[in-house]
Specification:
By secondary structure, the chain is of the alpha/beta class. The strands form 2 sheets. The chain has a 6-stranded parallel β-sheet with strand order 1-8-5-4-2-3, with helices on both faces. 53% of the residues are buried. Bound molecules: nicotinamide-adenine-dinucleotide.
């Protein structure tokens, strides 16, 4: 028997190919009438498409979401929502756009309807991040959790294959760490294992056939499960390292997750054997390779980066990265803190060189 605490998150999920057709119904159910539509500049055509289908329900478009939610952008978007009299915001895009929606919701309480087009998972979490004066502040607040999430695989067909693979690895990372979280619970374990399984099958399928709605649907289903795990349980060493490398060295988000994940799993393998066997089973590799090696192969065999040196990291920065990571550690199944500086530095060296873990 296992003791646990489980909090269910109050969000509504509408999933399916063509599910965007339910947008009007979902806005009505929220009791909203005028939506501000958010997107990045690159996805402004998708925001425009949403505005056209909403007609009078569209208050306007704010197509200026960027990575890491700068506070200035959040303020501009809040002012625009106020000026237009918007009573809900629709975030169509990846984690950057959802993040902007969250920043608006945090201050205004405006309900957010998320339409994710990557596999990052932010739409299922109450975690926000805002960057002010070069520093990214993150936290948890239930007010920022999108009230409705519409998952429509057809909207992900345009996500380039290389980004699809790293984004899927990013999602897997949430589930992998969720499996050994200090506050894990049986429901999240089921979702984590199923999420990894769905994504591990979707990666080869969408690499082969990027326009397959079936493969995209499996990937998005996995992303929903893995995002839910991220929203419900605490993350550990892997996420700490990725936040350090992304935040202090400006490395690209999904690629960093892809490169670090096998190394972090290797570091934690002996301290979390049950989690590792569930990952191996989900990858379809039990009895063949370790979880760490299986994840490394999954990335490498589908063209994703496997070395920090290939995604903009300088070898001369590894010492500083290790020091930052151990100075304020997260809980982790295997102890890591200032006393483990040498081990973490070695882990980062292997990630830098792209060495396949055993
Ligand atoms: P992103 O949102 O930055 O998107 C990357 C690029 O891909 C953008 O130009 C975007 O417009 C484009 N794009 C997205 N979907 C597309 C599609 N279907 N077709 C074509 N182009 C598309 O990338 P991301 O990886 O989704 O999000 C990363 C950010 O999200 C990071 O800042 C990260 O910290 C944050 N994040 C937050 C949480 C959380 O719980 N708060 C969880 C995961 C990620």
């Amino acid at each position: 028997m296992r003791d646990f605490v489980f909090n269910s998150q109050p969000s509504r999920v509408v999933f399916g190919a063509g599910a965007l057709a339910h947008l009007e119904r979902e806005i009505d159910l929220l009791g909203a009438r005028r939506a501000l539509i958010l997107s990045t500049p690159e996805q402004s055509h998708q925001a425009q498409m949403v505005a056209v289908r909403l007609g009078v329900r569209a208050a306007g478009i704010f197509p200026r979401a960027v990575m890491h939610v700068p506070i200035e952008t959040a303020r501009e978007a809040r002012a625009e929502a106020h000026r237009l009299g918007a009573d809900c915001a629709i975030a169509i895009g990846g984690g950057s756009t959802t993040g902007l929606g969250k920043a608006i919701a945090m201050d205004s309480g405006l309900p957010i309807l998320a339409i994710p087009t990557t596999y990052a998972g932010s739409e299922m979490t109450p975690i926000y991040g805002i960057t002010e004066a070069g520093l990214k502040k993150t936290g948890r607040d239930t007010r920022v959790l999108p009230r409705v999430v519409i998952y429509d695989p057809e909207l992900t067909l345009t996500l380039p294959v290389n980004m699809s693979v790293t984004s899927a690895m990013n999602a897997i990372a949430h589930a992998a760490e969720g499996l050994y979280a200090q506050d894990s619970n049986p429901i999240m374990d089921l979702m984590a294992e199923e999420g990894i399984r769905a994504l591990a099958q979707a990666i080869p399928a969408l690499t082969k056939e990027p326009l397959s709605v079936g493969a995209r649907g499996d990937a998005l289903y996995g992303a929903w499960l893995c995002g839910s795990v991220l929203g419900n349980v605490g993350m550990a060493l892997h996420h700490k390292l990725c936040h350090t490398l992304g935040g202090s060295f400006n490395l690209p988000h999904a690629e960093v997750h892809t490169v670090v994940l096998p190394q972090a799993m290797s570091f934690n393998a002996t301290a979390a054997p049950l989690a590792m066997s569930r990952i191996e089973r989900a990858l379809g590799r039990d009895g063949q390779t370790s979880a760490a090696a299986g994840l490394f192969d999954l990335a490498r065999d589908h063209g994703a980066p496997i070395a920090l040196k290939d995604i903009g990291m300088l070898e001369s920065d590894l010492d500083r990265a290790a020091e930052i990571a151990v100075s304020n550690p997260y809980w982790n199944p295997r102890q890591f803190g200032p006393g483990q500086l040498k081990d973490i530095r070695e882990l980062l060296q292997r990630a830098y060189d792209g060495i396949r873990p055993d």
